[in-house]
Amino acid sequence: MVILKNDEEIKRLRELGLIAANILKEAVDNIKEGVSAKDIDVMVGSLANKNKVRNAFKGYRGYPANICISVNDEVVHGIPEEKKVFKKGDIVSLDYGVEKDGYYTDLAISIIVGEGNEEDKKLVNVTRESLYRGIEKARLGNRLYDISYAIQRHVESNGFSVVRAFVGHGIGKSLHEEPQLPNFGNPGCGIKLKEGMVLAIEPMVNAGTYDIIIKEDGWTAVTADGKKSAHFEHCVAITKNGPVILTALEGFNA
Ligand code: CO
What superfamily would CATH give domain 7-245? Predict the structure, then answer.
């Protein structure tokens, strides 16, 4: 069942989205050569306390950390370990969610440590652009897979591939609600978009094959061919005035 949100709930989700984006921005600002993913996880934990929000991923199906940090061939759900030390040229994808008063938000961004090579910059840019292509279709009168198709088309026309094994999702009083939102699909198909739907749109884009493998830790998804991957995510409300990005922060990811 798709749960529609009223204006009051959308306002709360926007406030929460802004808190999560500010925490994630601070995390990103601290990523540089020699810093470890664990350092960032610890920082995120104290920022969540300071902002009186709960780290939504911690304990979710047993996930052991505050944030997911996935580097290079890691697609999503990377665990921020001490030995994961950032180097120049790494693609770092950070995925972060918080909960407050029973409401959830979820966002992701990929960055390159220092100066990246042209191919990696293109991968990150195309992934970000594909998120915005999808958001543009999150409007009344469209259907769900219009979003999926817009993402897929932009990614594939640039020579990259869209991960099949993970999808976007509804969000609100749970981290994951219906509907599931694949990053590939046929335009004009899927459920009709309705006022009050809130969707976490999250393209995961691989430089090579879309196939992934889960590592022995039971969480980290890596590309099957070892090539790099990027991930961006926003929560978006469908309103009569068009898509409203609930996790946007000026000067960071907007
Ligand atoms: Co998500």
Answer: Creatinase/methionine aminopeptidase superfamily (3.90.230.10)
